[in-house]
Write a structure and sequence with these properties.
This protein is α/β, with parallel strands linked by helices. It has helices at 7-25, 35-39, 51-65, 83-88, 126-130, 156-160, 172-176, 202-206, 218-226, 249-259, 268-285, 299-308, 322-333, 348-353, 367-377, 397-400, 407-419, 433-444, 472-484, 500-504, and strands at 98-100, 111-115, 136-138, 144-146, 166-170, 182-184, 190-192, 212-214, 231-235, 263-266, 293-294, 338-343, 363-366, 426-431, 451-456. α18 (433-444) links the parallel β14 (426-431) and β15.
């Protein structure tokens, strides 16, 4: 589903746009109750059997976009009843971050193997021969069927049928969840087990019914801008190409000033410093103090590793993430500024709020939420004039490469080659949480000693994050081009390296 524009994308983005427009226009905020009617006009439903249901779902998505919690199905109150609180609170949202709107869920079957009408009744019956539970039987016409009470969903029959007459059905949200956190409620609808969830957001971008959404701070960011607060945006390197071909780095910076941001800083700066710190950590600790080291960049990977493999908690690098390093640097230079990280990741919203490490990040927005702000303001990138000074050129090529899977480990290894040219480093990259788990299982078995392990919750890396707009392959190409255009390749040559000790304080 990723990379194919759909009605679900339109619903998400229309909600962000209308909430952003409400914040920019100000005045009577009770107008928020009319947003569902604006997005779902008329009397005829476009996507569901009932126009009132469509509006109710949009209303709950508006509630989440304002940072509010979902309303219990048995309660009836307009969004406007809480909007003043959302408008005055600086951060507002409380966990859980990712939410399933119960009445929007289609109650898809959790997982089933079915034999379709395409079964030819062949005499070899490979499906029957491989079934470990004798769950497959013949009818009077010699066609195969599955006894669901015996089936264990192993998929062996699915792989063996020469006619592809066997289908495997799984909830898209559950299939996308690398933590197996999607369960069922008493009505058969999907629900999230928050003890397992790491808020990567893969479920929300893979639900074909627009039933899953995360909470947003878009309303609070714009309110801060409208109060004339100094709001500085720190933009993750995956931004390249997210907003169309006309949106060059310089035009993006100019457009964000039109939105009201005081300045825009490239988070690749923080990636450079994170790389140098992790390179030194690896050289100091592996293998002298620990058998391997995991990178710290992806918060969902880091939380997953610590949840499922607590014995490896100290083996995940303690280096500050690029977001935090960049925010701290900006705060040092602008102590009264409010910092807004803008990137591809839903999990960054929780990282910014964690108590264990001071993030210095006041708000987190995704690229999709930022696009809502552009649309609300009617930004036309083709018409924007740029200042050559706005061209982002602070980050190195390797720091920009963080956005693509494997880029973090590659940057750290490259930095190590400068610090200790004789040191050889073995690396492995976990592409998505399921692969990350396999990687750590190998480490548990002692088969990854001496390794640098990079984990990314989103398959493909940050360019595949839940808050991205552009197809993953296209974004990967754009980032690679941006990486090659950097004035300096190696993170060790970043002009900001001398500030590393300063931000660690």
């Amino acid at each position: 589903m990723r990379g194919v524009h759909s009605a679900v994308d339109d619903i998400r983005r229309n909600v962000f746009t209308e909430v952003a427009r409400l914040a920019y226009e100000g005045g009577d905020l009770n107008r928020v109750d009319m947003i569902p009617y604006k997005i779902v006009p008329g009397e005829v439903a476009r996507h569901r059997h009932d126009v009132f249901l469509e509006r109710a779902i949009v209303q709950e998505r508006v509630r989440l976009a304002l940072g509010m919690s979902l309303q219990p199905a048995g309660e009836q109150s307009p969004v406007s009843a809480q909007i003043q609180e959302a408008a005055t609170d600086q951060k507002y949202f409380e966990e859980p971050l990712v939410n399933i709107i119960p009445f929007a869920c289609n109650a898809c079957p959790p997982k089933q193997i079915r034999i379709t009408d395409s079964c030819q009744g062949c005499i070899s019956h490979p499906c029957m021969n491989v079934c470990p539970k004798d769950a497959i039987y013949l009818d009077e016409n010699k066609h195969c069927h599955i006894d669901q009470s015996k089936c264990i969903k192993c998929g062996k029959c699915f792989n063996q049928c020469p006619y592809r007459a066997i289908s495997k059905i799984e909830r898209p949200c559950a299939a996308a969840c690398g933590m197996d956190a999607i369960e069922s409620d008493e009505l058969g609808r999907a629900k999230i087990n928050y003890d397992k969830c790491v808020s990567c957001g893969m479920c929300l971008v893979n639900c074909p019914f627009a039933a899953i959404a995360d909470k947003s701070q878009i309303f609070q960011v714009i309110n801060a801008i409208q109060r004339n607060d100094e709001v500085i945006a720190c933009v993750a390197p995956a931004f390249v190409g997210q907003f169309g071909k006309e949106a060059t780095p310089a035009k993006l910076k100019a457009a964000m000033r039109i939105l009201g941001f005081t300045d825009v800083v490239e988070v690749a700066i923080g990636a450079d410093l994170c790389t140098v710190e992790e390179a030194h950590d690896f050289l100091e600790n592996v293998p002298a103090k620990q058998p391997f080291m995991g990178t710290s960049c992806c918060p969902a990977w880091s939380v997953m590793a610590k949840k499922l493999f607590p014995q490896f908690k100290d083996y995940i690098s303690m280096a500050l993430t690029p977001m935090v390093i960049t925010a701290r640097m900006v705060k040092k230079d602008h102590p009264n500024a409010r910092i807004c990280f803008i990137g591809p990741c839903a999990a960054k919203k929780l990282e910014a709020n964690r108590k264990s490490v001071r993030s210095d990040v006041d708000y987190v927005l995704t690229f999709e939420e930022l696009q809502g702000m552009f649309d609300a303001k009617g930004i036309d990138f083709a018409a924007i004039e740029t200042d050559p000074a706005d061209d982002m050129s602070e980050g190195t090529g390797m720091g920009r490469g963080f956005a693509v899977g494997g880029g973090v480990a590659a940057a750290v290894v490259e930095a190590i080659s400068h610090i200790d040219p004789d040191r050889e480093v073995k690396i492995e990259y976990g592409d998505g949480l399921r692969e990350c788990k396999k990687m750590l299982m190998m480490a548990k078995a002692g088969k990854r000693d001496g390794y640098l392990l990079e984990g990314m919750a989103c398959p493909g890396g940050c360019v595949a994050g839940a808050g991205t707009i552009t197809p993953v392959k296209e974004s990967t190409v754009n980032v690679d081009r941006f990486k090659k255009a950097a004035p300096e390749l190696s993170c060790t040559n970043s002009p900001f390296v001398t500030r590393l000790k300063e931000v660690e304080e």
